[in-house]
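User: Modeling request: complex.
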Amino acid sequence: MCNIEVMCIGSFGRYTRPKCNLILLIILQLGLHTVEGVWPLPQSFTSSTERYPLNPNAFYFGYGRQSAAQQDCSVLDAAFKRYFSLIFPDYTSGYGVLRFSGDKPFTVEIRVDHADCDSYPNENSSERYNLSVSAGQASLNAETVWGALRGLETFSQLVYQDDFGTYFVNKTEIDDFPRFQFRAILLDTSRHYLPVQAILKTLDAMAYSKFNVFHWHIVDDPSFPYQSRTFPDLSSKGAFHPMTHIYTQSDVRRVISHARLWGIRVLPEFDSPGHTQSWGKGQSDLLTPCYRGSTPSGTFGPVNPVLPSTYQFMARLFKEVSSVFPDSYIHLGGDEVDFSCWKSNPDVRAFMQKMGFGGDFTKLEAFYMEKIVNITSALNKTSIVWQDVFDYHERIPKDTVLHIWKGTPASYKEELSRMTKAGMRVLLAAPWYINHIAYGQDWRNYYTVQPLNFSGTEEQKKLVIGGEVCMWGEYVDATNLTPRLWPRASAAAERLWSDEKQTSSVDEAFPRLQDFRCKLVRRGIRAEPLHVGHCKHEYQGV
Amino acid sequence: MCNIEVMCIGSFGRYTRPKCNLILLIILQLGLHTVEGVWPLPQSFTSSTERYPLNPNAFYFGYGRQSAAQQDCSVLDAAFKRYFSLIFPDYTSGYGVLRFSGDKPFTVEIRVDHADCDSYPNENSSERYNLSVSAGQASLNAETVWGALRGLETFSQLVYQDDFGTYFVNKTEIDDFPRFQFRAILLDTSRHYLPVQAILKTLDAMAYSKFNVFHWHIVDDPSFPYQSRTFPDLSSKGAFHPMTHIYTQSDVRRVISHARLWGIRVLPEFDSPGHTQSWGKGQSDLLTPCYRGSTPSGTFGPVNPVLPSTYQFMARLFKEVSSVFPDSYIHLGGDEVDFSCWKSNPDVRAFMQKMGFGGDFTKLEAFYMEKIVNITSALNKTSIVWQDVFDYHERIPKDTVLHIWKGTPASYKEELSRMTKAGMRVLLAAPWYINHIAYGQDWRNYYTVQPLNFSGTEEQKKLVIGGEVCMWGEYVDATNLTPRLWPRASAAAERLWSDEKQTSSVDEAFPRLQDFRCKLVRRGIRAEPLHVGHCKHEYQGV
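Assistant: Request completed. Predicted assembly structure:
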């Protein structure tokens, strides 16, 4: 019945379905409302048709007496302000203004076990919460402030307006926690520069879908926009423009701080030894000079792995990066290294011989990556590397996380099996290369991914720490980022958060995702439509 | 040499091409600038490296003494204001403010043969212009104000800023005219509602690419947003929402008026007898009741062609539409009629028998379309119909324009050949269904279309009056319209405006289109990137 209701709402006005519209009319006239509209779907969700009007003038967030966090908890105080505006989009005065009302007040009371208000979310942060909505109040309990943030998002999605603009919330009971600990979105700021505002707005939208890691693929071949304190030439010579197309230290702090307030970790990637053409512009002798015969050709290849100066440079760079980015994870790349330049270079060949690598350049690559992993390990960082590294590196430290990006559904399942069998933790990105576009409802492909549907033991499955939606930047910048990302990434978000069995039907997800997409549009996110239809509040910008 | 210059600028900072960058550096240091940056490419273009600084405080548009149009010419006066802002995007005071400057003035002097200032552009409007830029002045000559608008667009694209923000224009001589008379963009406001602002912004961007027809596919199965004076129920019952998702008479006037000021015709489409599900909601007895066996099934098919009331309704509707939309063309649709409902209906079958149509429902369809074409002919409108109509209608009036939308490159060429052989005028849309998206540089497909490369006589080729970029709305609304349309539609714009031989190389077009795309971004149009790279001024919105 519930599904039929939602389906009717979803297709209202699109297809002539007299029976459906009849049911819809009856529902509207009875003043009922389905409250299934939480995306991603909570693990446990019961609600009734009993509903409570909410008056913005008599609506409060508060800390429960037993809560470890109390007033002045930076994360929650900021969240209350944000969510007040998100819950009451029509209300102009804003939260915190002295308000008078004859209505009975409605209070959302938050209680958390740990007052982790000034910390950063990390890989062990609990995001579990319990939300209980009843007459006059909602109780939100969580172990951490990060769990409380997820609960606030859920609460905000429960509130709806009737045709006269009155806000309501139904009696609801929710127990919720994420299926996977690591739910990431990758943005690529090297192939195109993304203004800081575009990144911040993406962080907002990530939180609406309960993503919790921003993987910042900050530099690559085309440009080096990160302004390093230690090596300022990297951006002044390697960025698209040394002033307008860079991320200053202050920009980076702003991104990290904004992300923290949404409970989002910032995972920086400084990919090497390949994908480093832009690095060479500001750091001489870093890249390998390629040879044509016996003379340098004037072009450069991957990072030069044979010079001690390379590792001195990397140690200083990663020391800075480790202090700038508070997360305990760091992404080291390691993918797609082209050996042709290394092969052409006589110094590299001599080094190979000296080290006894023979003609096997994967050994040289492994040698290089091991040095880099050691540098970051010494800085107490856990390394993530692209899956390529596993293939050429036998001695990769066990706490390194492998990032699976290659292959078809059939082949990445094999990789999942193989890598977890070796006891390695893995992250799945391969099926969620969302920069790839196709005509029609390709979100269905992102939704139907089954990250644990590979052959392996229960222990192996536990090694899959999560997944990542990758928005590579070849064809994406601030002009088209948002509609390409949303709501297609939200499909992956539900796969990573929700119970697999409860979310097995893509057709049942469709009207729910349509509904959620309209919520995103209402919040000012240019989320593109899934199919023919409309939102009550269309996007009004141009 | 010129091409090499532009190529280098296009790829600056993207690929390491030391030689290219060296040339670029030399050019920059000499203070030279390539002035090939006009899109679509003018028919005849010569320029030199001699350049003139432009000071916004000493820059004027004026009417030449011999110009038929003089001050208070609505179209040109408005264009001067718009183009002043487009030419000097950094200048905050705006055009028309009293200005003092020590600099020598620069005047753009416009001379037109006809003072068609208060008319609408039509199918015979000349868009030819001549632009001559020399020290202290530019002379822009045109037969009509519409040609002058095209010349102003060209002039605005010639102006550039150096690294210090100074504006320049080079000595230039341009003779220009469009290859095809009809260069259209279709927007579909039925599958999704587009706010008026989104339509107006699209008109702006159309003018930047010299498109001159806005084909407004205003109603269709999913919704009927046009608010009819004669039949207000059509939108109050057939729109997605009767208040928020409609186009009022005032909205329509605003669109037509805005389009006129850019020299753009507005071609309305009221597609029938298929694609009319939404019409049936507000007009009972209009659609054919479908039968299951001997009883009505409750669903409806295409417009009912057997009732006299149908034609009375259509006559009144098209009388209104003809007066609301000033263009002499009207699009009547006629595509994709599903016969199954007609076949099921006993009244329709009886009518078929009475008329002697046998079992051939295309004859019924032809009967219907002929009636509709006669209605609009009597209103002095030229009809455009989708190509389907040609296939089933032998007696289609010779002045009807056929709109080719079906098929592969091979098959639409056959259609072009077949239909022009029958002496019919045609419009080509098939290769430009731009709502279809694919990963990568699909603009190349739009660019390499050769509309006249079909087997036929010179006379036949003359019957191809132009082409149209169609943005069907299944997956498009205001959230993603702009980056899907631009700059991909601009590729088609050059094919429709410019000389085919001069624009035969897609690789030479690439850096020029990249450059033009950055101009669009600078003008606030969210035109998506073509490939890795950057614009000096990135899109700053979120």
